[in-house]
Specification:
It is built from 17 helices and nine strands. It is of the alpha+beta class. The chain folds into three domains: 11-303, no CATH class; 418-497, Helix Hairpins (Orthogonal Bundle), CATH 1.10.287; 503-673, Heat Shock Protein 90 (2-Layer Sandwich), CATH 3.30.565.10. The longest helix has 81 residues, at 260-340. The two termini are 74 Å apart. Mean pLDDT is 77; it is low at 668-675.
């Protein structure tokens, strides 16, 4: 045994010394705490069920009152205010139960007829239901709800004192339910004076069940509850109600001494009396449960405190035993943890030449080698591929990996330099080709169009008087089409050279840009009689010429598509938006804020389903003969927004106007707009 124990690693020896007694104590503490917590949980769960049952009983009492008022309303066509008040109270109690998370009453309105309550209420209010149907609906619903008040207690000595009270409360609840079923039938007999025997025969079963519950109450309730019930059964409205029921079901003839209203008032008072007794028993049970809960918590805490004290004593003894060993290993452990986290600069004292001293010396060597390899990798990362890499051995995985990385990175760096040079030449050639295309398009493509317009004008001036109206229209269409094609060529040119624009990006005051745009469109604004509302705009980062073109196109569009039957209006406003509030699709890198500039009009608008296609090249949603344009204006706007790493979005509604939202960076250009 001694030899075996010596072969166990030092860490395991320390673990056995400290952990085994602690595990035993923890196990005992867990068992004690678990048992006490189980008792507390049982008590808390029962208290919650008792509170839930209290709300259900409130609901049953409220539905009983609503049933009487509904019956009277259908019978006499009056009492609307009292009925409405009672319904409001019933709904407030229902809301308490709907808020409960008790799985036993989850969605209980779907299987207790409560789901049809609103429909029945509407039929009652509209006098579309018979009194029997009202009574049957509320009685069956009350009967079903009463089944929720049953409370079964687990077999537990702690809860034994509560059995009698909870059984008495449950039985009284059942008696109240069956009395609530019987009394409306007696009321109906006294009120209508017909079908007396038939109704009593139909209700006799409920009366027999009521009497069985009363007998069970005398068997299971405690002596104090029985005495209270017996006092209630003498010289009270409850005793009068039971007497009337006893005579009625004994002779199948209702005592006509009392009118329907008198009987209802007496039975209502009687139910209140027995409900009061039920509540007294209920409150006593709840109070007793709270006392049990507090006592169980006190015992649990006391037991936990004793276990903690015992654990402290045991831990102190164990810690004193291993203090010397743990002190020797602590510094090695800290040093090893630093190395595991990638830290360096470990300094250890070599205490002796035994295994602990050898371990400290080995960790010291690991730290030195790690520092040397880290400095080598850092030099390689900076591009110094001439640094000397010396693996510690043939099996040194880290050293050999760094050596392989040095060769791979050097080769990759050389390949990337060659690729960058190649791509740079290709980009320069592409830009040159684009500039040549722009030159050809500006001169060679537009020259025939200019000649078409010139000669069509000459033709019209020279022989226009000799032409028919139809021929003059043809010439006008030729001239108009040539102008439109010229505009499309200009638009395509502008679109194709936006990214080739090498103007410097700088801070732009949008107030100046918008002032220039409105100045350029001043005559058009006056012709259209448009009211322009311009708010103060921010300073953004961009290329002035392109930003001017962007807002020129947006304002020009708003003028072009103004409505005919309203005072044209354009509203230009802005906000600063943080990155976390941006639309989806915006990916950023270093930009904190964006400026959102809105150009809104009350013109003809558009269908929102076409909002994205508006920015496609040559896309037009309107008749080209009625509204001039090339279908490139909004495409240019999106291209310019993309060029500035921003975005543009359209919102609109037919015949109600459109709003274009432009997002541009406020501070710098280091962001990316995702496609």
């Amino acid at each position: 045994m001694i030899a075996f124990f010596k072969r166990i690693p030092l860490g395991v020896k320390l673990l056995l010394i400290s952990v085994i007694p602690l595990l035993f104590i923890v196990f005992l503490a867990y068992q004690l705490h678990h048992e006490k917590q189980k008792q507390v949980n049982i008590v808390v769960a029962i208290i919650e069920k008792i509170k839930r049952n209290g709300n259900i009983i409130l609901l049953i009492e409220s539905l009983q009152a609503e049933r009487k008022l509904s019956f009277d309303h259908v019978m006499h066509r009056n009492g609307e205010i009292a009925l409405s008040t009672q319904r409001t109270y019933t709904d407030s109690v229902l809301n308490l139960l709907y808020q409960s998370k008790d799985p036993q009453i989850m969605e209980f309105d779907k299987y207790t007829k409560l789901g049809a309550l609103d429909s029945i209420r509407n039929r009652i209010s509209n006098n579309e239901i018979e009194t029997d149907a009202v009574t049957n609906y509320y009685s069956s619903m009350i009967f079903r709800l009463n089944t929720f008040t049953a409370l079964s207690l687990p077999v537990n000595p702690v809860l034994r004192p509560l059995y009698n009270d909870l059984q008495a409360q449950r039985l009284l609840s059942e008696m109240i339910t069956y009395l609530s079923i019987i009394r409306p039938n007696i009321y109906s007999i006294l009120y209508n004076r017909k079908y007396e025997v038939e109704i009593l025969l139909g209700t006799a079963g409920a009366y027999e069940i009521l009497k069985s519950y009363e007998t069970e109450f005398f068997v299971k309730a405690d002596i104090n509850s029985i005495k209270q019930y017996e006092r209630l059964n003498q010289n009270s409205d409850y005793s009068i109600m039971l007497n009337v029921l006893s005579k009625a079901f004994g002779s199948y003839k209702v005592d006509s001494t009392y009118s329907a209203e008198q009987f209802w008032e007496i039975s209502e008072n009687g139910l209140d009396e027995i409900a009061l007794l039920q509540n007294q028993i209920w409150n006593k049970a709840v109070q007793h449960m709270e006392e049990i809960r507090k006592e169980q918590i006190r015992q649990k805490n006391l037991g936990l405190l004793l276990v903690i004290i015992l654990m402290i004593i045991v831990i102190s003894i164990v810690m004193f035993t291993i203090l010397i060993l743990s002190g020797m290993l602590r510094e090695i452990k800290v040093a090893a943890e630093k190395l595991s986290m990638g830290l360096s600069g470990v300094r250890l004292k070599i205490w002796s030449n035994d295994v602990v001293g050898s371990l400290a010396e080995s960790i010291q060597k690991i730290d030195e080698n790690q520092n040397r390899l880290a400095k080598t990798a850092d030099e390689i990362g900076k591009g110094n591929f001439n640094v000397d890499v010396q693996p510690r051995s043939k099996g040194d995985l880290l050293g050999n990996s760094i050596l392989s990385m040095q060769a791979s990175l050097q080769k990759f760096s050389e390949e990337m330099e060659a690729l960058v040079k190649q791509r740079t030449k290709e980009l320069e050639r592409s830009n040159s080709d684009l500039q040549q295309f722009a030159h050809v398009a500006s001169h060679d493509l537009k020259e025939p169009l200019r000649k078409i317009m010139v000669f069509s004008s000459i033709l019209n001036n020279d022989i226009g008087d000799n032409l028919t109206q139809e021929h003059r229209a043809y010439i006008e269409k030729i001239n108009h089409s040539a102008k439109r094609l010229t505009g499309m060529v200009d638009g395509v040119l502008n679109y194709s050279i936006i990214n080739a624009n090498d103007d410097e990006m700088k801070m732009i005051d949008l107030n100046d840009i918008m002032a220039d745009v409105l100045s350029d469109l001043e005559l058009y604004i006056e012709q259209k009689n448009v009211h322009v509302k311009l708010s103060k705009l921010p300073v953004i980062w961009g290329i002035p010429s392109l930003v001017h073109q962007l807002f020129y196109n947006l304002v020009n569009n708003a003028l072009k598509f103004s409505g005919d039957n309203v005072q044209p209006e354009i509203i230009i406003s802005s906000d600063i938006i943080a990155t976390d509030k941006l639309p989806s699709g915006m990916k950023l890198n270093g930009v904190e804020d964006y400026a959102e500039i809105r150009v809104k009009d009350n013109g003809i608008g558009f269908n929102q389903q076409y909002a994205d296609s508006l920015f496609n090249i040559f896309t037009r949603l309107n008749d080209k003969d009625k509204y001039e344009g090339t279908g490139l204006g909004l495409t240019l706007c999106k291209k310019i927004a993309d060029r500035h790493h921003g975005g543009i979005f359209a919102e609109g509604k037919e015949n109600e106007g459109a709003c274009f939202r432009v997002l541009l960076p406020v501070k710098n250009e280091n962001n990316i707009f995702a496609d």
